Amino acid sequence: MEFSQRAADIVTSYDISPYQNVPLLSEVAAAKDPNEPWDREEPDSPADLDD
Predict the structure, then answer these.
(1) How far apart are CA 24 and CA 8, in angstroms?
(2) CB neighbours (10 Å) of residue 21?
(3) How is 6-45 classified by DSSP, letter by letter?
């Protein structure tokens, strides 16, 4: 109840920005299928979240 009364004061603006705190490809692979481990030969970089 208090949040809904104060929401306008708390959320003053929002913008669409580049992804932040994006999980690594290895973390996404582990979450998708724990039985198929990440291939360590491939570079580990931020995951493409557009899929």
Answers:
(1) 34
(2) 5
(3) HHHHH----------SPPBHHHHHHHH-TTS---TTSPP-
Stretches where the chain sits below pLDDT 50 are none
Residue carrying structure tokens 């669409």: 16
Q: What is the pLDDT of residue 51?
A: 62
Structure tokens of 27?
């973390």
Q: Looking at residue 50, what is its pLDDT?
A: 73
Least Cα distance to 29 among 43, 19, 15, 17 occurs for 43
**Residues recorded for the chain:** 51
